[in-house]
Every structure is written in C-alpha cells, then in structure tokens.
C-alpha cells in the first residue's frame, strides 16, 4: 500500500500527462480485481480509495468520475478493454498518446516517486523495488521508464538528498526542455552532467 500511496502522490505532481498516467495505473490495478473475481462494490471501493489518497482538487474530480462513470468503467474492464482505451474513453488520455517515449514525462514521474519515497524514509532498495513496480504499471511507457530508471536513479537520489530542486533534475539531465521536447535516451546512457 505504501507504494500505491507514493505512486499516487508522485503522479499528482508530474506534468500534464498526470491524469493519463494515473488513470492507466489505477485501471490496470482494477483489472487485477476483475481477474480475482472481485464484486462491483469491491472494485468501486478500490477506485474510491485511490481518490482518497489524492490531494484536493484531484480527489474531488476522481470522486465525480467514479460516481458518474463507475459502472461503465467496470463494464469496460469486464469487456477486457485496455487501460489506454478506458482512460481515453474517460477523456483522461489523449486519443493519440505518445507511443515513442516521452522521456521528459517519464523522468518527472520517476523523480516524483523518488522524492515521495525519500520523504517516507524508504531505503534505496525499497525505492528501486518501487520504481520497478512503477515501470511495470505503465502500459505504454515501460521500456522508456526502465531506461530512465537504469540510467538515472542513483543520480536522482543524490540530487534530492542534496536538497536540490527535484523539478529541475530532468531539465538538467537533458530529458526535458523548455518546450517539453521528447529526447531519445540511449540504453547505455550515463549521467555525465552531475
């Protein structure tokens, strides 16, 4: 549950794709409840519990979505619609989501998670395990997430532990620009700037 809390907190502070990434993660987790034969009430309770973890005004928007779309969300899950499709139907993801790898938003997501984990006194091993779960939960961005995590996690931890502004890390690393450009990160990328 700690990882879910940390993830949801980190997602809230990510960039404009926050709603989409958060939605996909929650829907993917709710899919597991369908596989486990959870009742509609249990699934709705899970979705509402995800809302509780969000700060205002996100939690209010989340509650409204569950109240108005809850049964439809469950039906989409029963029909085996993907998280991408469900979240697009809920207008939380764009219809043409970036498939090629938005390293900027992935980096911001990872930094947000690490920042929340450090605030919760997580160990480096716990942070790494949580990041593995985070990447696995991203249906469309898992390879890019793994690349960012493998290349930058130690530097992100050092950056945050040095009380540097977490919001500037991804720009300093060259993964974000003023225009939110998408950069290709080579698999053997190293962190030479810090």
Automatic annotation (TrEMBL):
Domain of life assignment: Eukaryota
Signal peptide annotation: 1-16
Residue ranges occupied by any Saposin B-type domain in the UniProt entry: 16-97, 100-180
Keywords: Disulfide bond, Glycoprotein, Signal
Keyword Glycoprotein: yes
Gene Ontology biological-process entries: sphingolipid metabolic process
An annotated GO cellular component: lysosome
Pfam family, one: SapB_1
SMART domains with a match to the protein in the record: SapB
InterPro entries: SapB_1, SapB_2, Saposin, Saposin-like, SaposinB_dom, Sphingo_Act-Surfact_Prot
UniProt keyword annotation of Translocase present: no
PANTHER family to which the protein is assigned, alphabetical: SAPOSIN B DOMAIN-CONTAINING PROTEIN-RELATED, SAPOSIN-RELATED
Annotated protein name in UniProt: Saposin B-type domain-containing protein
Organism: Arcella intermedia
